Amino acid sequence: MLEVSNLRKVYGPDPHAAPAVDGLSFAVADQEFVCILGSSGCGKTTMLRCLSGLTPATSGSVVLRGKPVNGPPEDMAFVFQDYSRSLLPWMTVRRNIAFPLRYKGVDRRQAAELTEEALDAVGLAGRGDRYPWQLSGGMQQRVAIARALAYRPGILLMDEPFASVDAQTRSGLEDLLLNVWQRYGITVLFVTHDIDEAVYLADRVLVLRPPANVGHEAVVGLPRPRNQVATKREPEFGRLRGELYAALDGRPVAA
Ligand SMILES: Nc1ncnc2c1ncn2[C@@H]1O[C@H](COP(=O)(O)OP(=O)(O)OP(=O)(O)O)[C@@H](O)[C@H]1O
């Protein structure tokens, strides 16, 4: 369980400056898939950085499985939007994936096994010897996902991870993520601008209002496994989309 309580983040030395995150509280259950929606600049990335322990919060607390988060927790992994900067260009795909495992104390043989399994899970078996710059954008993002999976995190934080790929690749990556989420039983916190993506992926969607606090929450009861065509045709999908549009706009949400 991840518990966020009354989180506040003010950048810079002036404590009276406008906060990027203010009064943010929510909880995510183990193995839950939660999407966070919010308009540009409302504090989503700041929130994720505070949750990951990469940026200290001004006040409030983040507790992961009973332990306060004061730095990056060992069983947490991240996938960011900008895959071109997250992979190391001088390392092969295989070495990029295995690299964080060294710091986790995983021995060489087990690291090799985890790497091959993750490559296979993201459909890149046989591409381990390539360099990131020899791959398409969608493939590079799959490498970033494979790296996170090989790490076997308990919780995965994702910051608009599919924002810079084309629509077709994006749908494929969404389905890949759902598949591995179920297979490995990971908890996922996924930030996106895209209402349809949030409804398609999530068990629950939280809408942030500036300065990031939870303005609305929608439980997504759509059946799993989800399907890009059939799920999006469900009346419940349309209803949730409307509800979340209204919530993002700050309009009253119909019951
Ligand atoms: N390092 C920083 N120093 C000062 N202010 C910052 C810093 N990072 C973000 N901010 C400010 O905090 C606010 C929230 O930014 P943040 O990047 O968290 O929003 P966001 O919702 O992720 O935006 P987007 O959807 O456009 O990526 C903005 O006003 C931004 O200018």
Automatic annotation (TrEMBL):
<dbReference type="Pfam" id="PF00005">
    <property type="entry name" value="ABC_tran"/>
</dbReference>
<keyword id="KW-0067">ATP-binding</keyword>
<dbReference type="InterPro" id="IPR003439">
    <property type="entry name" value="ABC_transporter-like_ATP-bd"/>
</dbReference>
<feature type="domain" description="ABC transporter">
    <location>
        <begin position="2"/>
        <end position="235"/>
    </location>
</feature>
<dbReference type="GO" id="GO:0005524">
    <property type="term" value="F:ATP binding"/>
</dbReference>
<dbReference type="InterPro" id="IPR003593">
    <property type="entry name" value="AAA+_ATPase"/>
</dbReference>
<protein>
    <submittedName>
        <fullName>ABC transporter ATP-binding protein</fullName>
    </submittedName>
</protein>
<dbReference type="InterPro" id="IPR050166">
    <property type="entry name" value="ABC_transporter_ATP-bind"/>
</dbReference>
<keyword id="KW-0547">Nucleotide-binding</keyword>
<keyword id="KW-0813">Transport</keyword>
<dbReference type="InterPro" id="IPR027417">
    <property type="entry name" value="P-loop_NTPase"/>
</dbReference>
<dbReference type="InterPro" id="IPR017871">
    <property type="entry name" value="ABC_transporter-like_CS"/>
</dbReference>
